[in-house]
Amino acid sequence: EDLDTTPYLETLSKHSLLAERAYTIVPHTSKAITSINCGIDAHLVREITEAEPGGVPARCLPDLLKEQGYDSVWFSSATEHFEDRRDLVENFGYDDFQPVETMEKEGFQKSNYFGYEDDIMLQPSRDWIEQHKDKPFLATYLGVTGHHDYRPVDRYGLKDYSNFPPLDHYQNEMRYLDFFVKNVIDQYKELGLYEDTIFVIYGDHGEGFGEHDLFQHDNTIYQEGLKVPFIIHEPGRFEDGKRAQTLTNQLDILPTLVDLLGYKVTGGHYAGRSLLAPPEEDRTLFFSCFDEYRCLASIQGTEKYIYFFGNQPEEVYDLASDPLEKNSIANEQSRQELKHKRLQVLAWYSKVNATYERRNSGQE
Questions:
Q1: Burial code of 173-205, b = ≥16 C-beta within 10 A, e = fewer?
Q2: Which of 4, 66, 222, 292 registers the highest number of CB atoms within 10 A of its CB?
Q3: Does residue 238 come out as left (phi exceeding 0), alpha (psi in the -120 to 50 range) or beta?
Q4: H or E element, residue 200
Q5: CB 22 within 8 A of CB 335
Q6: In angstroms, what CA-CA distances link 237 with 138, 260, 273?
Q7: Where are the domains of the chain?
Q8: What would the pLDDT profile of 195-243 be if each residue is shown by its tens digit?
């Protein structure tokens, strides 16, 4: 069912690069923003080890751009006192971190237990840009309006989307976010920076509302938890709209931006692929629940496999014919086929965690 929650994004995407099959890797914010900013898989454990000293085993986008003369800032309408967010953002290499604690609250509504409505970031954004607009910069805005416990913010009015209150509130928050994205882009137009800015709009995770008896996002390994928006809007480019229909995930954001900016990474490489490069048709994406030993998954082509560490039967879905994952076809697969998929996801899981364990033990 089509909803009118994001009309601005709908219009913007017609003049942008839109990744139609974009996914998060771990549906949890701290893990997702590690992949987005650093082009690597996050540590597949519940602890946010990435916020520890030396906890990120790669150079992240702000650090890479700093070499090219870029300043960087991170704005967030959420508190800094959750999962060591300040330490995590500093590990990414940002020069400046502005959480909601640094912002003027008067006139703004709380949107959940984490923070305030996202428009609270607009004035700090304007102030910072006014001071830094003579140099190239990277600015990141982490909104929290769409987060549990879904308190509806009525700044732009409220609509009736669902008879289920949590879902109705969430969809109204998506509508609010559409206004916020427009407000940010309008601000860049007012400051004379729109034509020289690349706007990247992405989600850190989806959200479950009981579609598979799962709520929230941390362990929602189905499409409603993993599929995310990913739009790149660069004025003067993609004016007729470009659709990337191959599988993509958050590892691809860093190499795509490096490509768009005209740089090349030297001294190593990132696992993701630029969306400007020829597509990798047989690519396999891997996923993990936030809780350890809860679930892993993979998608190759239109086939999705889910492994529950033996706690419940494996599941397989054909996303082309069953996009809502209603009917598992695991019983149509041979034992050998299921074993191959299981070994694939476990090998990925072990490889990712070994990277962090070597780093933490001082081995490279």
A1: bbbbbbbbbeebbebbeeeeeeeebebbbbbbb
A2: 222
A3: left
A4: strand 199-202
A5: no
A6: 19, 10, 19
A7: 7-260, 284-360
A8: 999 999 999 999 999 899 888 898 999 999 999 999 999 999 999 999 9
Residue type, 90: E
Residues in CB range of 256: below 8 A, 6 or more apart: 232, 272, 274, 275, 276
**Which position has the token pair 């030396």?**
54
- Sign, CA dihedral 32-38-43-48, equals negative
pLDDT value at residue 269: 82
Angle of the 29-38 helix axis to the 253-260 helix axis, nearest 10: 30
CATH 3.40.720.10 fits domain 7-260: yes
User: Which fold is adopted by the domain 284-360?
Assistant: Arylsulfatase, C-terminal domain (3.30.1120)
**Cα–Cα distance, 119 to 348 (Å, whole number):** 39
HSE on the CB side for 39, CA within 13 Å?
A: 22
Any idea which residue has 């923003």 for tokens? 33
Cβ within 8 Å of residue 322, ≥6 positions away? none
